[in-house]
Queue: 4 jobs
Job 1
Amino acid sequence: MIKEFDLLFIKERRKEMGKTLQDMADSLDLKNASTYMKYENGEYLFRAVHLPLLAEQLECDVGNFFAKNFAKTAKRLSEGGY
């Protein structure tokens, strides 16, 4: 089972919670909102130490940040992978 980091979940959950980019930057001890936005947009990769802080801010479990990627799994299986 392949899981990918779900940046869309993070972005949508942040908006649902009414948190700004700066709120999130502050919670992760990042320089500014622009830096956080690069993480949320996938230009930078979130580090493992960020995950519990993100989960706390977004009031969710770390597991919510990972989505099963069924398309890639199906493709690999059809190609004889696994």
Job 2
Amino acid sequence: MKKLIINADDFGYSRAVTYGILDSYKIGILTSTTMMMNTPATEHAAEMAKENPGLGIGVHLVLTFGRPLLDTHKTIIDENGNFKKLSFYENNNFEIDLDEVYKEWKAQIEKYLSYGLIPTHLDSHHHINSFGELYTVYLRLAEEYNLPVRNNFSNLKNINSNVKTTDLFHMEYKEALEDINSIAAIFEKYDSVEVMTHPSYLDKFIMENSSFNLPRLDETAFLTDAVRVKEFKGSTLFDLVTYGEL
């Protein structure tokens, strides 16, 4: 049977984001999410995670939003002690201490574990793991904690064949999940697929901190559409799974 993971990024970004993700799981077709460990709503997300054990939850490693968990960094923060913005990394010509990234991301994973939760996998905010040499830290931690990763590399299998992942990572949820025929066409070539989504409701925090806000409402409605839910949950082509079931 083919395996379909529908993952929501940003669990814990804000309470509204967390509730949007939970509804997309409870009444929709969402199966998986990844949790941010450095936001004001992290504690709330951890509580919700414990109340919804069927939802696969990984760690959404952060390097470009908010403040780090550790206060010893020199090269990955700005003058105010916040993480440097995504724009700092976008030309792939940046210089940072990768050991700082390792220590920070390890602290984020350890914080997740401190809640008594077991992560299903790793991915990263803004796909930062795919910039420059940051993938080396990402894969090092995946091996250290024996966790699958999001396959947002063009050549992951060439980089490290020991890390578990899906055959395909799909970034366009409407294209992949429009109907059964659209996902069936993808499964003609692949046995396991992750589709990325960003469902959410809205609150003051996300409106003030993210330029990507209103479209998240559309994603919540899309993932909870009654016709789509019936089609996808009744499919005999694939199983809706989490990374823990790869």
Job 3
Amino acid sequence: MERFEHDDAVEVIHRSFPLGDGFPVGSTISAREATLRKYGLAGTRLEASTRRIEAMAEREGLHPYRVLENQVGNTRLAHEFLTHEFLAHASAEGKNRVAWDALFRACFGVARPIFGLDDLLGRADEIGMEREKTRRVLTEGRFGQQVQDDVESARRLGATGTPYIVVDGRYALAGAQDTDTLLDALRQVWAETHPTVLVADNDAALCGPTGRAVPV
């Protein structure tokens, strides 16, 4: 966004897309074990894949950025579901970005769990959200329908995993992308939706809505 020429015209919105509904409910497992179960990745293949992501993050100034040291849990039924409701509540409070950053910093920066209610209440304290109100919102499932709507919308747009970025409803980028790729996508969409108008230095005219010629 800092490099995009029209950054003031772009709004970044984080949407919910719960993952990992096949993991045990009420407990967490290591990211290594989860990746082996879900994708069959282990050993040198797993190390190479995650180190590439960590190196990409470091180039963007995100350090430390931990992947395999994390703990993950059942994302749909309990832990991640709470996480997404936390973000939905934070959005309603005008704190979407700071809440997102707090969760990412906890999960990928210091490998701290974010799947339980107490974990999320701790993050709420960090960003200045009222603790008891946040507890009520999460325990009542107040934003459950919003989470489900986000999931259905993402699937209609072709998402099967995360990250999945949609630009202006017309271009999708799946997987971890570097900033050059994202910048190219923004510029391409901007060029297609904001055509350049060349004006000749003369008395040329255009037809207006009434069909009459109007000065350029």
Job 4
Amino acid sequence: MTNLQSTNALRLLQAADEFHARLTGEFGAVHGLSVNEFFLLMHLERATSHRLPRVELAKRMHVSGSTVTRMVAPMEKTGLVAREVDAHDARYAFVVITGAGQTKLAEARATFDKQAGYLFQDRWKGSELEHLSALLHRLVAGSVSNLT
């Protein structure tokens, strides 16, 4: 590849894949969560009233509505999320993070933070991390799925 923009996009994808692979094993073994379930819980935690319609969750996660439905079903059974019907329109439902979901998210976030530390330790100075953070923030600014 000779195009620097394409090269950088490829490097971002490679870095994301490596980080995702690290998280996948530990999240599953330690927390019983997938990486996508972790992100779903994060979106709910940051949402107003800790709830979102399935369609909005799908949009924020860049997946289909049916994918969200398949993800939510087992999470409801284990008590991480619940279904809440709109008080004004019973046909409209929200996915809500529960207390158990918030606890699980806090535990998984500690694992996420630990793995993020491994990703950057010994490679980056503090000033470089701050600069990288600013550049990545600019890259995702305005994104509907922005979790920062």
